[in-house]
Amino acid sequence: MAPTRAMALCLIVVALLINAAAASSYSNHTVGGDAVWFFNPTTNKTSADYNAWAANRTFNLGDYLIFNTNTNQTVIQTYNKTTYNNCSMDDSLDTDTFQYDGGSNEFGSAVVISVPLTIEGTQYYFSDADDGEQCLHGMAFEIKVNHGLGLPPSLNQPPPPPYVPPPESADGVQTPPITVVTSPPSGGMRTTANFCWLLLVLVFIAFLA
Ligand SMILES: *[C@@H]1O[C@H](CO)[C@@H](O)[C@H](O)[C@H]1NC(C)=O
Ligand SMILES: *[C@@H]1O[C@H](CO)[C@@H](O)[C@H](O)[C@H]1NC(C)=O
Ligand SMILES: *[C@@H]1O[C@H](CO)[C@@H](O)[C@H](O)[C@H]1NC(C)=O
Ligand SMILES: *[C@@H]1O[C@H](CO)[C@@H](O)[C@H](O)[C@H]1NC(C)=O
Ligand SMILES: *[C@@H]1O[C@H](CO)[C@@H](O)[C@H](O)[C@H]1NC(C)=O
Ligand SMILES: *[C@@H]1O[C@H](CO)[C@@H](O)[C@H](O)[C@H]1NC(C)=O
């Protein structure tokens, strides 16, 4: 790699770091704001326009949706638009639709349900209570989750890698050794690397200040 290309790469890395830091930190979004997650079965009205609420915010990986509600409403998360439009979990797949349980089975008990945003892209929420009537009357919204800072370590627990059987050694077939060609170190490269480190340290100090 020529020193100028290394320099360009260095500047790109620094720019990306600045950008990531500008995405600040993780947020908790109280669904509906002060109006919270609530449906009035007498008037058939939701306490907030949830799609308007969602349209006004930015959601990132690692953020939480906080549903302040009571057990008369449910919290269903789905990645499947068919399930969302249907207002029902009845025919949904276990792999794309989840119900978040408030832990109480009595009507009207106050609950706070926290849902971490762990997958990028579009996802949907609704309450399927009252046989879907709540959802049909607006207890439903769509959000788009951006990458932001990416998942924090606390939420980033990837599944273990799949088992890969060791390669079978067919008689007489030998894989050739892999030759790694390394270019000789050059003075230009080293100067660029030093400069890059200096720049990174300066940016880091600037953010600490
Ligand atoms: C956001 O909510 C989660 C889950 O309830 C909680 O662990 C975390 O402390 C909250 N973060 C902030 C900044 O309030
Ligand atoms: C609320 O919706 C239910 C079911 O659709 C209906 O039977 C009832 O009359 C509605 N009530 C009002 C106040 O609109
Ligand atoms: C969206 O945000 C703007 C500016 O922050 C605010 O004036 C407006 O009321 C918000 N709309 C909703 C639906 O929350
Ligand atoms: C959901 O789908 C089922 C059949 O899969 C249908 O019987 C039901 O009416 C649908 N509900 C809504 C609200 O569209
Ligand atoms: C969405 O869910 C329905 C069942 O409700 C299923 O038939 C369909 O394949 C799902 N769509 C996707 C894209 O997985
Ligand atoms: C919850 O639903 C039950 C049964 O429909 C009703 O009696 C009760 O008043 C509701 N409570 C609240 C807080 O909405």
Automatic annotation (TrEMBL):
<keyword id="KW-0812">Transmembrane</keyword>
<keyword id="KW-0472">Membrane</keyword>
<feature type="signal peptide">
    <location>
        <begin position="1"/>
        <end position="22"/>
    </location>
</feature>
<feature type="compositionally biased region" description="Pro residues">
    <location>
        <begin position="155"/>
        <end position="168"/>
    </location>
</feature>
<dbReference type="InterPro" id="IPR008972">
    <property type="entry name" value="Cupredoxin"/>
</dbReference>
<dbReference type="Pfam" id="PF02298">
    <property type="entry name" value="Cu_bind_like"/>
</dbReference>
<dbReference type="GO" id="GO:0005886">
    <property type="term" value="C:plasma membrane"/>
</dbReference>
<feature type="region of interest" description="Disordered">
    <location>
        <begin position="151"/>
        <end position="176"/>
    </location>
</feature>
<dbReference type="InterPro" id="IPR039391">
    <property type="entry name" value="Phytocyanin-like"/>
</dbReference>
<keyword id="KW-1133">Transmembrane helix</keyword>
<protein>
    <recommendedName>
        <fullName>Phytocyanin domain-containing protein</fullName>
    </recommendedName>
</protein>
<feature type="transmembrane region" description="Helical">
    <location>
        <begin position="191"/>
        <end position="208"/>
    </location>
</feature>
<keyword id="KW-0732">Signal</keyword>
<feature type="domain" description="Phytocyanin">
    <location>
        <begin position="27"/>
        <end position="147"/>
    </location>
</feature>
<dbReference type="GO" id="GO:0009055">
    <property type="term" value="F:electron transfer activity"/>
</dbReference>
<dbReference type="InterPro" id="IPR003245">
    <property type="entry name" value="Phytocyanin_dom"/>
</dbReference>
